[in-house]
Amino acid sequence: MKIRRAAVTDAEGVAKVQVDSWRSTYERIVPEEYLTSMTYENRAQKWKEMITKQMVYVAENCEGDIIGFSNGGQARSRTYPEYEGELYALYLLKKHQRNGLGKRLIEPIIHELNKMNIYSMLVFVLADNDSRFFYEK
């Protein structure tokens, strides 16, 4: 598995991981209408822009397919002023979860934040998301 900075040409792969991950992770948490309204095309357009403006890293398998991604930067919420950085998103295709790849995807975000003299980070996770335990470690 390879972790690297995302390029605009990765937007479609990132979008696919996001949509597929949302549908498998949030199927009983988020309204079905919302999940079915998410499309690869719509998300890819948004990622093309975000990749140029934010920290986005991808995980590739041996075939070069994107199987996960992370996204982070300065904290967007002022509710928790003690945290200057934020992990905006961390998604892996279900079959690639629980093998250390999530941690590997967070590391470059932390490194980038540290270069900006940011040493604290928060993440918002839905209470019903079983993956929340990953962040509680």
CATH fold name:
Aminopeptidase
Just name the CATH architecture: 3-Layer(aba) Sandwich
The number of domains is 1
The counted number of beta strands is 5
- Distance between the terminal alpha carbons, to the nearest Å? 23 Å
CATH class: Alpha Beta
- Helical segment count: 5
Portion of residues in helices? 25-40%
Which band does the percent of strand residues land in?
15-25%
Q: Quaternary status of these chains?
A: single chain
The CATH homologous superfamily:
Gcn5-related N-acetyltransferase (GNAT)
Q: What does the radius of gyration come to? A: 15 Å
Describe, in plain words, how this protein is organized in 3D.
The protein has helices spanning 11-25, 32-37, 40-53, 101-115, 132-135; strands at residues 2-5, 55-60, 66-74, 85-92, 121-122. The protein is α+β, with helices and mostly antiparallel strands and 137 residues long. The chain has one domain: Gcn5-related N-acetyltransferase (GNAT) (Aminopeptidase, 3-Layer(aba) Sandwich). Strands 1-2-3-4-5 form a 5-stranded mixed β-sheet, with helices on both faces. It starts with a strand and ends with a helix.
